[in-house]
Amino acid sequence: MPAAKPGPEPSGQFVQSLARGLEVIRAFDGENPRMTLSDLAGRTGLTRATARRFLLTLAELGYVTTDGKLFSLTPRVLELGFSYLSGLSLPEIAQPHLEALSRELDESTSASVLDNDAIVYVARVPTRRIMNVGITIGTRFPANVTSMGRVLLAAEPEDRWPDALHSALAEVRRQGWALVDQELEHGLRSIAAPLHSADGTVIAAINVSSTTASATLERIADEFRPALLRTAVLIDEALRQVSGR
Questions:
Q1: Which of 8, 148, 186, 226 keeps 20 to 30 A from 176, CA to CA?
Q2: Which CATH number describes the domain made up of 16-73?
Q3: How far is the C-alpha of 182 from the C-alpha of 189, rounded, in Å?
Q4: pLDDT at site 245
Q5: List of residues 6+ apart from 160 with CB closer than 8 A
Q6: Comparing 42-46, 84-88, 175-179, 231-235, which segment has the lowest mean pLDDT?
Q7: Which sequence spans correspond to the domains of the chain?
Q8: Each residue's pLDDT tens digit, 205-216
Q9: Could you tell me the sign of the dihedral formed by the alpha carbons of 130, 161, 90, 23, in that order?
Q10: What architecture is the 80-243 domain classified under in CATH?
Q11: What is the distance between the alpha carbons of residues 17 and 14, in angstroms, rounded to a whole number?
């Protein structure tokens, strides 16, 4: 981390602990997304004890996560930039959250909206090619055989549900997520969750997609689902903040 340029002397209103907390957050970057306590202390010039107190405080507030050794930022730090985000569109708001989710799981993530009986991709973070067909912004797939499609269909009035999917969509609506196992393409698994407008209306969906070789059903349940649902909550919070400005 480059040394800070000398600035004006702090005023009598300067809160040093806040400044140090922000310095800890800024220490993480593209080259240092995960650090040990010693790494962070070295980059910030803080003592290990001081750095530890700030990291644990940020972790308790939800801005930092740790596996007991390495620390990293969570998508919640994006809340600090909501004023800037106020003019952004849904894909622009969702993109950094999808990127964080993709890094966390090392899997592809996407967002889509419903257009009649199809989903349309509006944001995507690929990690590898997992389908025979390339997926880009604007790609369309039948909603009934995709996890995002089922999340979006489940939010529609029941009289629009295909009879063959009635029980499946009722379950998706009840549980708040959808898992599709090799229905769109052999060897492909994905799990999706809804995104909501400020009034609670489902407006889009996000997913994590992988292959049967990489993601067992147990891994999807234990790792993908909780991370996906946390990300959906963060994006919903961002959308509410934007709509309130």
A1: 186
A2: 1.10.10.10
A3: 6
A4: 52
A5: 153
A6: 84-88
A7: 16-73, 80-243
A8: 999 999 888 899
A9: negative
A10: 2-Layer Sandwich (3.30)
A11: 9
